[in-house]
Amino acid sequence: MKVLNRRSVITLIAAAGAVAFSTGAWAAQKKIGMVLYDTSIPFFSNVITAAKKVADQNDVALDVQNGNRDLATQIAIVQQFITQEVDLILIAPGDPRGIVPAIRQANAANIPVMTINTKVDTSTGAKVDTYIGVDDFVFGQKQGELLVKTVGENANVAYIVGQLGTSAQLDREAGLMDTLKKHPGIKIVARSAADWDNSKALAATQDFLSRFPKGSLDAIVDQGPEGVNGAKQARQNGRDDVKFIMGDYPADVRSAIMDGTVVGTINQDPTPQGKVAMENAIKWLDGKQSEVPQPYNYLDLPTVTKDNAETMPPAWGG
User: Which of 45, 243, 211 is nearest to 143 (CA)?
Assistant: First the structure.
């Protein structure tokens, strides 16, 4: 069997995609390419649904591609979009620095680029017209504020982070630490990366609970919603000494907040991200660039606890 090298794979992807985008109705429509670093994440499923709805309403051809958590794949997809001569690229990269050369290729081809949910490192010369999503630094700050309100001024805390190197992981951690530097009695005593993955977050929680016996760990903070199963298991095993704080607000996190298993979360709603991203992209292509917030289009980040969960529907699921 012949093994294809990376250049051959990119060439084949681009050639196949170019045919799809150049035939039939596609050729007459505005063409937008979207690459997300992992479309299997439930959060991104809701981004895609919202984006497709706006695209259909505006007769826009939207091609969504899965980056599969792999930088080479994401670069190949951006190059595919360039070959197809799409009108605009929306991207949520897994590696904010590694994707820069591909973004610069799009810049050289005069294709506008917007980032969604996850930022690109523009300090190295990549031009991004705007970012649509939340301010993850503020997200982290708000998690920190909820943590302080929950545990007081002295506590041992374990921390579950998302995919290392993504802007969400880096900025949320920086925001949390910014809040905690004002509260030196709260210590991060353990840290684990779960890659926004449910099974990895559960394993991290189990590890923390086994390493820190009852009374020695006050809280576990998760950058995402994946730790909710660990919170449920901890409660079933009598570890009510540990308080849990999540990130994001799917239906299972809402249920856990309402029954007291989770203290609260920060609600990053994926639907507005997909909707606003497509609306911004269409305005840009219609020559209404002044109506697009630049360089950032930050969306709301409400804190959800038992006090307001009943009146606030989940962001997705259920």
Answer: 243
